[in-house]
Amino acid sequence: MKHFTTLTEAMEDLRGRGYTHEFGPQNDALVEKSTDTKLKSEDFNVDEFHRFEGTSDPGDEMTLYAITASNGMKGVFVSAQGTYANEVSPELMAKFHVADRAQVNTDGAVKPLDSLPTGQ
């Protein structure tokens, strides 16, 4: 999977791959912005995600999720991190903890730095 340097670049790539809907949080559901379609956590799967970190402002950190709904609708959900995080239910946010799910493409995840060799 390609590593993207900007959120816009990633969203354009996903749009080209059919992720054309935009979702926003609303309590315990994601809501598709143009159709008002509501998805509970059991109504969609996370296909991949990409995390972006601001260079100077922690408030610039965002995660872009590509999701597919059980009704076939494909789209994106952008979640801000830290202080400005979207307010959603714990049940909905649990759906986005994807590190332990083999079917989710985690290539866009921030990887920890390797430890420096001892003695340095």
The proportion of strand residues reads: 25-35%
Mean pLDDT: 77
* Classification by helices and strands: mainly beta
Number of helices: 2
**Overall 3D geometry?**
globular
Overview of the structural elements:
This protein is mainly β and 120 residues long. It has one domain (7-106). Helix content is 12%, strand content 33%. It has a 7-stranded mixed beta sheet, covered by helices on one side. Strand 5 and strand 6 form a beta hairpin. The longest helix has 10 residues, at 7-16. The radius of gyration is 15 Å and the shape is globular. It starts with 6 loop residues before the first helix and ends in a 12-residue tail after the last strand. The model is unreliable at 110-120 (pLDDT under 50).
